[in-house]
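One thing: can you check what follows?
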Amino acid sequence: MRASGPLVGRPYGARHLAGRLEQGRVRKDIARPAILRPARPTVSFTFDGFAHSAARTGAGLLANVGGRGTFYASAGFAGGSGPGGPMFAAEDVARLAAGGHEIGCSTFAGRDCARMSLDDVFADMVRNADALAGMGLDQRLTSFAWPRGQASHALKAQLPGRFTSARGVHSGLASGRADLAQLRANAMFGLGALRRCLAILEEAQRRNGWAIFYAHDIAARPSAWGVPTGLIERLCGSAYASGMRILPVRDAVASVLAESAQT
């Protein structure tokens, strides 16, 4: 199956003006408010879709610094090909989970949720979970990522309770006053990506914050939505050298919520 979802044809979040304005309103509509105060600076590296290079190179780079990542799977892409090359396969899912990485949930087809009915979105979530279970995944899906970063007021309000968080694509730290139904995250691609990402990482280190990064594939010359190998190596190295925790979103949410309750 050839990938035809959020990473084909347009960049993350690229829509007409009315759509962008509506998404701005959706982000301001806090569905699951939380005050997140990590005890230590924390970073999560996440991959959407996701490409086989993320499952191999990305997981390896994180393991090299004692970290683990979150791989938001859209099962409809499995075994196919996308802009970043081959997509993940069933064996990638089992191997990542066995290595302590998190398999997160997107939707089966990676479609724009803001343009789908609630019933269709929920049905696609279930279809995705069933397909991943069929690939041998035996861990519970607790983290969700909005395909293309697009959500709606109704979807955020009715996000299934089994998801402890949902990740968006709006930049900034996922700490302080936060919305667990649309956590902030930062693209590891695009103009000035290295400068932007290092600034976010330094802010998290300085403020005891939680930074989330995302991309689709990894290569020396990645796709438009991929992260250059050197860039993620630089981020991993900086995080490790400063003593940051490098956690999957699932583990970061659990740790930060527990720590925040004690302050």
The longest strand covers residues 42-49. DSSP finds eight helices and 14 strands in the chain. The helical segments are 17-28, 52-64, 90-98, 118-134, 153-157, 193-207, 229-241, 249-261.
